[in-house]
């Protein structure tokens, strides 16, 4: 994406497609094209807001607002200890901001209580990748390799709507004679491009992957040489797969045996193949094991650690990859180091100039942190600093999360708009966003990119780095929180040196000259052992060895297990949730853009005609979807492209149509990912628009009492 000032366009920024840019070949989706409108929208925050005596948010000066935040956070710390102060970040933040936020929390606040929305995003794939390969990088190869492989299985991923610029890699694959298989309970726009579409019952991907592996073994299509030379754990994984014979898998998943066989044939006949997962199989209470089972399929067939083959995770947010590498995750330090590892603590403490003993230990995962907000218990989190996320709309069991946020002693939010979450705050700080500031992002391929400032921010806004600097200064840290992103990056390089995500050989200058640099990229001493100069970066991982201590990939021995919540007589249907093309996430930004709202004006319930007929519902009729946690209402959208036992709702809207009023916060035991992708519901025709969940007031401006 290239940004050039153009006064005739919104915010003085024009977004233009840049054909030579290697990640998207210049293509942009509707949200990218209209992104400048988000810079300029009338509802953009340009002055700090402070909750006054009247109980309303009122404009205030920066000094007053920052004083209030510093006082709010330190009062809680003094009264209840450092872990009573929490921080919640986002995968949209630049690497520099994510790094500074983790450092601020651990040093200035002294708190272990930090996590971020990426926990809701790729944490299951990250955990499974680390377990199997010893490192978590979304793709072990560049996106541009996809069209040259022989077969791709896309599991629970809908790039036609969620990554339109990447769709060309999949259409390119088919133009080159490669096969595309899509696994999704819905016949999505992506599935329409596929050679084969498998539509399993939500939550059964683990059984499906095991069933495919069973067939691979039964049909003698394993790669014994690869298994022996480059993996460990095959006997246990093989035994797990053999317990999932095809007819059993058909019964669990609803996918007919002949389609399972067809899938194995396409995958194994191709000279090289890939499995790519996204949120469908990952956002489950068994997401880590599920991804592990798909990785098993790659390992058993020798489709990993070789050119044009492997497992990858299609990452979500703007900086979904980098956002999880530099320390805003509860258990991590910069460079993808682990907070519980004494050597990692010593290294990072050295860079920060502190004693390792002052660094707190690992904290709680995102949902657990949100669930602990405002609790009047010794381990309650009573004050929160929130950046770059809107959990009132996007967290599971959102009515409960909203209630917890209202119960806080103090809430400060940094945002560009007055999101549903910002409305609950005691102080809202208006910050700058992407085109208004410089910073690095890391793509799903591990490519570190530099985004340069293109326009001046609206007067009144400050960058997140400046906010952290100003707060740190008020809390006794005059030094250590620079506001210049390049200065922060230089420190991040040193902190990451020797870590899994090693950025130490990457500089702003190199990124600009080379169109991005792939980590790991260690610094090399001038004239040192490499002699030839700087490390070239690592576009392709695992070709010689995996990143585990013994260099071998590890099979996962998991067997299928049911979802956290099964259907029953009272809740006979499954709800799954996801995205539509024209809205982004909690909608905080896109619901403010007229063109996008025209394309996707509101929530809906997608259901099969047979189910609609049973309910007596016609297209557009208002439906009420009820789960054990609440109710949401939205018009019916009837389509044969969904299983008859499943309904789908997008999660982009607050208020009565908020899908997350329904979702189940049951967590994966390893990744702590909530089960966004399925819960048991019943669907009814709603008689009036007024019978929504009274607890669900997100659509109204609802100030927190006090
Ligand atoms: N337009 C748009 N694009 C976006 C975003 C956005 O909000 N809007 N968000 C960005 C972010 S942060 C992310 S994480 C990505 C997400 O990108 P995707 O993962 O592609 O998006 P989702 O719609 O959440 O889920 C993908 C598919 O999973 C299917 N699914 C549901 N349940 C199951 C299941 O049990 N098994 C399987 N196999 N599939 C299932 C859904 O039907 C859906 O089609 O998109 C990014 N791009
Ligand atoms: N039911 C259901 N729920 C889901 C999902 C699902 O599939 N189903 N998907 C989950 C996933 S994958 C994700 S990633 C989450 C995303 O959901 P959220 O975490 O709520 O993400 P956004 O809506 O993008 O919120 C980002 C906020 O940060 C603000 N912002 C933008 N840029 C900046 C910046 O530079 N600094 C600061 N301080 N603020 C900024 C935006 O205005 C916006 O208010 O939702 C999760 N929730
Ligand atoms: Mo995401």
UniProtKB/TrEMBL annotation:
Write out the ranges of the annotated region (Disordered).
686-706
Q: Which Gene3D superfamilies match?
A: 2.40.40.20, 3.40.50.740, Dimethylsulfoxide Reductase, domain 2
* Record keywords: Iron, Iron-sulfur, Metal-binding
Transcription regulation: is it a keyword of this entry?
A: no
Q: Which InterPro entries match?
A: Asp_de-COase-like_dom_sf, MoPterin_dinucl-bd_dom, Mopterin_OxRdtase, Prok_molybdopt-oxidoreductase
**Residue ranges constituting the Molybdopterin dinucleotide-binding domain according to the UniProt record:** 573-680
Q: What sequence ranges are listed for the domain Molybdopterin oxidoreductase?
A: 44-473
Top-rank taxon? Bacteria
Q: Which Pfam families match?
A: Molybdopterin (PF00384), Molydop_binding (PF01568)
Q: Which SUPFAM superfamilies match?
A: ADC-like (SSF50692), Formate dehydrogenase/DMSO reductase, domains 1-3 (SSF53706)
Here the segments flagged for biased composition (Low complexity) are 689-706
**Entry protein name:** Nitrite reductase
- Which species is this record about? Streptomyces sodiiphilus
């Amino acid at each position: 994406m290239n940004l050039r000032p153009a006064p005739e366009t919104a915010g003085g920024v024009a977004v233009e497609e840049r054909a030579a840019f290697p990640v998207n070949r210049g293509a942009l989706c509707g949200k990218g094209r209209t992104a400048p409108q988000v810079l300029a929208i009338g509802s953009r925050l340009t002055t700090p807001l402070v909750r006054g005596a009247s109980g309303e948010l009122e404009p205030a000066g920066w000094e007053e607002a920052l004083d209030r935040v510093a006082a709010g956070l330190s009062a809680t710390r003094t009264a209840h200890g450092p872990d009573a102060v929490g921080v919640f970040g986002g995968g949209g933040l630049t690497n520099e901001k994510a790094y500074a936020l983790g450092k601020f929390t651990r040093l200035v606040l002294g708190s272990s209580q930090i996590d971020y929305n990426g926990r809701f995003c790729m944490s299951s794939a990250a955990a499974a990748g680390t377990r199997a390969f010893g490192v978590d990088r979304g793709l072990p190869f560049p996106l541009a390799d996809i069209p040259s492989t022989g077969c791709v299985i896309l599991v629970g991923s809908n790039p036609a709507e969620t990554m339109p610029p990447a769709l060309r890699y999949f259409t390119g694959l088919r133009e080159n004679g490669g096969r595309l298989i899509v696994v999704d309970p819905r016949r999505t726009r992506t599935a329409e491009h596929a050679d084969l579409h498998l539509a399993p019952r939500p939550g059964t991907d683990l059984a499906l992957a095991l069933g495919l592996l069973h067939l691979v073994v039964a049909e003698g299509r394993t790669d014994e040489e690869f298994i022996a030379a480059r993996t460990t754990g095959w006997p246990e994984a093989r035994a797990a797969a053999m317990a999932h014979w095809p007819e059993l898998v058909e019964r669990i998943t609803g996918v007919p045996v002949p389609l399972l066989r067809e899938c194995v044939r396409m995958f194994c006949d191709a000279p090289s193949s890939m499995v790519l997962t996204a949120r469908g199989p990952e956002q489950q209470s068994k997401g880590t094991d599920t991804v592990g089972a798909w990785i098993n399929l790659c390992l058993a067939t020798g489709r990993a650690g070789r050119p044009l083959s492997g497992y990858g995770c299609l990452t979500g947010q703007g900086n979904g990859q980098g956002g999880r590498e530099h320390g805003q995750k509860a258990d991590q330090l910069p460079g993808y180091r682990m907070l519980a590892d004494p050597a990692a603590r010593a290294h990072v403490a050295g860079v920060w100039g502190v004693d390792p003993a002052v660094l707190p230990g690992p904290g709680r995962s995102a949902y657990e942190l949100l669930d602990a907000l405002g609790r009047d218990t010794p381990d309650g989190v009573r004050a929160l600093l929130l950046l770059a996320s809107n959990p009132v709309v996007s967290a599971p069991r959102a009515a409960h999360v909203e209630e917890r946020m209202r119960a806080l002693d103090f809430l400060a939010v940094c945002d560009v708009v007055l999101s549903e979450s910002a409305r609950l705050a005691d102080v809202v700080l208006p910050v700058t966003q992407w085109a208004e500031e410089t910073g690095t992002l890391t793509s799903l391929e591990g490519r570190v990119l530099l985004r340069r400032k293109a326009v001046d921010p609206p007067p009144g806004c400050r960058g997140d780095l400046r906010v952290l600097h100003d707060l740190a200064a008020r809390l006794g840290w005059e030094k250590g929180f620079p506001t210049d992103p390049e200065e922060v990056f230089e420190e991040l390089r040193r902190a990451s040196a020797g870590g899994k995500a090693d950025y130490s050989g990457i500089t702003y200058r190199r990124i600009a000259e080379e169109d991005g640099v792939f980590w790991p990229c260690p610094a090399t001493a001038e004239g040192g052992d490499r002699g030839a100069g700087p490390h070239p970066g690592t576009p392709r991982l695992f070709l010689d060895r995996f990143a585990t201590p013994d260099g071998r990939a590890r099979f996962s021995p998991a067997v299928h297990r049911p979802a956290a919540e099964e259907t029953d007589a009272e809740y006979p249907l499954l709800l799954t949730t996801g995205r539509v093309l024209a809205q982004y996430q909690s909608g905080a930004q896109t619901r403010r853009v007229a063109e996008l709202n025209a394309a996707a004006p509101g929530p809906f319930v997608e259901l099969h005609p047979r189910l609609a007929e049973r309910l007596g519902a016609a297209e557009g009729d208002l439906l009420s979807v009820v789960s054990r946690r609440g109710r949401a209402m939205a018009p019916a959208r009837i389509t044969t492209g969904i299983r008859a036992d499943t309904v789908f709702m997008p999660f982009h809207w607050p208020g009565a149509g908020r899908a997350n009023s329904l979702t189940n916060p049951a967590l994966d035991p390893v990744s702590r990912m909530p089960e966004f992708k399925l819960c048991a519901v019943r669907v009814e025709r709603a008689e009036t628009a007024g019978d929504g969940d009274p607890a669900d007031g997100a659509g109204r401006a609802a100030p927190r009492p006090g």
